[in-house]
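Schema walkthrough. Field components (list of strings):
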Amino acid sequence: MRSPKPFLLALGLAVVLPAAAQKSDYPIQAVPFTRVKLTDSFWLPRLKTNTDVTIPASFARCESTNRVKNFEMAAARQGKFATTFPFDDTDIYKTIEGASYSLSVYPDAKLDAYVDELIKKVGAAQEPDGYLYTARTIDPAHPHSWAGKERWEKERELSHELYNAGHLYEAAVAHYEATGKKTLLNIALKNADLVCAVFGPGKRSVAPGHEIVEMGLVKLYRVTGQPKYLTTAKFFLDARGQYKGYDPKSPDGWKNGQYWQDDKPVVAQTEAEGHAVRAEYLYSAMADVAALTGDKQLLAAVDTIWNNMVAKKMYVTGGTGAVGSGERFGANYELPNATAYNETCASVADVFWNERMFQLHGDSKYVDVLEKVLYNGLISGVGLDGKSFFYSNAMQIKSLDSYSYHDTEPARAGWFECSCCPTNLARLMPALPGYVYAQKGRSLYANLFVSGKASLTVNKQQVQLTQANNYPWDGGLKFTVDPSASAADFDLLVRIPGWARNEAMPSGLYTFEQPSAQRASIKVNGKIVDYQLKNGYAVLSRKWHRHDVVEVSLPMEVRRVHANPLVKDDLGKVALQRGPVMYCAEWQDNNGKASNIIVPAGTAFTASYQPGLLNGIETLTATVPVVQLDASGTSVSTAPRTLTAIPYYAWANRGKGEMTVWFPEKLTNLDLLSQPPAAAATAAK
Amino acid sequence: MRSPKPFLLALGLAVVLPAAAQKSDYPIQAVPFTRVKLTDSFWLPRLKTNTDVTIPASFARCESTNRVKNFEMAAARQGKFATTFPFDDTDIYKTIEGASYSLSVYPDAKLDAYVDELIKKVGAAQEPDGYLYTARTIDPAHPHSWAGKERWEKERELSHELYNAGHLYEAAVAHYEATGKKTLLNIALKNADLVCAVFGPGKRSVAPGHEIVEMGLVKLYRVTGQPKYLTTAKFFLDARGQYKGYDPKSPDGWKNGQYWQDDKPVVAQTEAEGHAVRAEYLYSAMADVAALTGDKQLLAAVDTIWNNMVAKKMYVTGGTGAVGSGERFGANYELPNATAYNETCASVADVFWNERMFQLHGDSKYVDVLEKVLYNGLISGVGLDGKSFFYSNAMQIKSLDSYSYHDTEPARAGWFECSCCPTNLARLMPALPGYVYAQKGRSLYANLFVSGKASLTVNKQQVQLTQANNYPWDGGLKFTVDPSASAADFDLLVRIPGWARNEAMPSGLYTFEQPSAQRASIKVNGKIVDYQLKNGYAVLSRKWHRHDVVEVSLPMEVRRVHANPLVKDDLGKVALQRGPVMYCAEWQDNNGKASNIIVPAGTAFTASYQPGLLNGIETLTATVPVVQLDASGTSVSTAPRTLTAIPYYAWANRGKGEMTVWFPEKLTNLDLLSQPPAAAATAAK
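Field assembly_structure (string):
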């Protein structure tokens, strides 16, 4: 990473970082992605696939689907908007963002040049006053129907002008941080200046229809120090809950202000509600603004909403947004399996939000949630091939014979008409190194267990910290500390994950059936040390010398997980977890079915690493009763069979079929009348 | 029955039956209920229970729930409407109607006097110009909210003023025909004169919100011969499909004009649609007006609608109106089992409608449908005790553990806030004798196989026709013909039911798995006769002598019924029928469960009469595979067990539990993930 300072000077802007801005920010700061070089056998291949496959495929699709052409036409001020949604511009921004992170890990002159060319096209599409929105600029007299006749006119519900702006800002900051180039940032700032000129007290007001401009403005504020970006971000937060025009009699009951988190002022909101991605972008921005302004009301509100979400609205895989209609949070404990929506973008947003909550509070519970999302409901969104994606992430695929259009989709697709999820993954994956460590004063937080080398300054001392492990398959973690000087005095805070402390979720929404027989143990230089847990971290406070080695051993039993009994769909069912990884049974490993498996209490599991399976996974096997039908269809029996469970994230890489995360532990009521009608799907055609 | 003539004279009205009215009516006329005295062991006890229990209970409830008080307050023009619905007046009219039929079968001076008193109260509540609607008359300045500020103002959707009128007319005609008294008829005519004065071409127009006034006006026309009643009935039919004010964006998509059969002119309607009871009252009136006016368009429309209903929208029990929300017909083939609505009133209406269709066309298929309704989905609406009722009639009760509020109710209730169904049963049951025979010229139709004695005139000859049978349990029918003279020349048309001719439904919506090995056979005076089938009737054309005996033998095998495969819920399933009676399995006879029974192809059934069970029923038994769980809940097996099936109408007389009409024949896809969550109902509390 190049320091932003030269750039600020180079920009020639009269930028002075105000004292307030310098003082008040997240008390804990992440060690930036540019400082952490991965060697991890789990993540590095994924980042490489993202670089080699996902990003090029994403750019290629932006070209082939006319997303790039939209910018070219906007530059020429002629043509006809060539894609479906006015927010299709953001796929380009998001892929540039991903490519920027990637360039910092894997320098690539050709990609760098391609991105430069794209940025030129983006700049050419920008109107003289900074407005950038191809759906209108191409032909302002005949804009896209969602765009309205006038600028910003439909921003509340349909136009997504500020959503496009937000993604532009995010991409611009990433591109600048990764490459030091100001090309995209200049475009973003020009646009942001227009936004700040148009919106504000006494000027135009709106609660942005799809949040993200708030987070984006905060990033511009951090880079430039210009207070107006922060002020405008806060203005957009405060704008929520003011509009009174929603139709309470809307045919879609949920499609009132709640859908847009616009039914109450943000400080009065208490539940994770409405469209999940929008919501979690909003909550991320609330955390940002609370950190930067010290607004205690905002902080209290975002804490309350987080507690609601993790205690009542999150799947055991970390997925959020249970309801497909409206892509939204359901009611408390409404977590249906067959119809789980779980948008991949919501998992991305959840990573953003939980990272910010951690930076606010320094509690590992936020990282526990982040890790759950990361190893399960997030990476399930992309196939092992790096170019097939889930928009929604299933919890259960019943027999395809009884598949209903409400049920979650059983197979990944290459791209979507609304292709937010692939490009969101493309930008998140290469940013992963930035989530591994964080620091505050003399504390260095080791949050994620990802092998690699970090070069950082802690307590004013240069230190290199090396992680080597085989996580998430092994519980043995090794940290090697190498101060530049002969010694360095700081606290290493190693996260002891909630799951290793017998907490399946910080909230109690999910619980382990039994406590583990083991406790996480820590050795320093080969000697067991006693450690104090503080906010979920083992605090190792000492003067570190070169090659000091910390070894952590996390208990890796297979854990039986139960849901809060108010989650109706999971009653009497068990899920399987090992380390941070949630498991599922997929048809391929289980004689073609997964919906016939019972996992009784006391089932003994064997975990074993299968290097040849699904790019290398730890499988769980056990002998369990499986319900079988004979050929006549009139005789049912249970027989012992081997259940093979695979990591949830790895499902749907071998064709379409049954899958389940939750298994019945015992049957209390086998009801043939509740069975799907025989061959209904076929007959309905 | 007393002839209407003296009454017409007594009324002092200048009534002349117009030539047109005398000529044009149903080509086939029912032999009136007053001419048929039942001895039937199946029906007579039911009529007696209706007289001894249902009608007194209904009157008692009309008193205790303030329905009578509403009339008293209206008479005094003071008070506050004391019940929930403005149409609660009709419960009194309908019970008077039932009591009237009953009085003609079982004369009862006390009941007669009570009815006279009630009629006085009804008369006192009538306004001087004939208006009769207690919800407004009690306090015209503050009428019930559904009634609107002005008379008739909310008739289209809410007030039910004309619905009350229609039931008044029906009751008045029944009371007059049964007792010869004109008291209630005079009230009805005074009201009808007002209705005819208010509504008509160039005057006020409305499509009555809940049909029945049309049928009622036709009855007044028949009794009085006054054309205006028929004209106004037709005017109301023609008023449908004219109003353009329904909100096509209504939150309830169905709650546009279609719900009220008001989306198209009746002659353009092709499907049974909207609220089922309203619809079938409308179709009955369409048949009436088509018969009386010879309107061919109307006739074509009602034929088309009937074909739609019996081919696509009727349960195998004869129930109609599949969808609870709106108490309405679903889409074609939308016949869900767990949530079947099947309002008892819709079965009553269906009897009315099919009787009229038969009278129009002389085809037995209408009586086949009527009989299916009568022996199954209609009498299931009343418990054996005569005082517990189903508003909706289930096709399936799953395990009560997994009971959902959408599912059909599993137990009868004593009365309902909207108590249309009990009073509709109270008026239909004692009218049954009127459905047994019909005649046209020299043809005497024997439609229902109900033991009893009919005294009638056919082809100008006095004849007594006696039926003696043990129907529906036995297929042996005996008819004894006794002309008053030494001989009588006429055709006896004995209905050979569709089910005895291998047609489970006239429409093919349901089919038998195999044709019967037998054909219905007929003997006259002990000798087998050959017979021709004409419109479903065996035509026995001869000169009949005293004590001539016709014996009919109907094949009574247990039949396996399959639904059209487009009925998704019945795919792969079988229903059981014997004679006209549909069977079900109820928990009480099957070790506490019905949802675990498989009825494979080729299952051999034994039918046997059980005099001590459920007031005497024929049960079906067979050895079938039943799915069982062991105590651990982890072992499932199929074991041979005795299935005992009982007549569908007799279920829910022994407590709440599982029941099913349709059984899986074989399982193709046992999917534990589709099972209801264990003890969901309990946990959800």
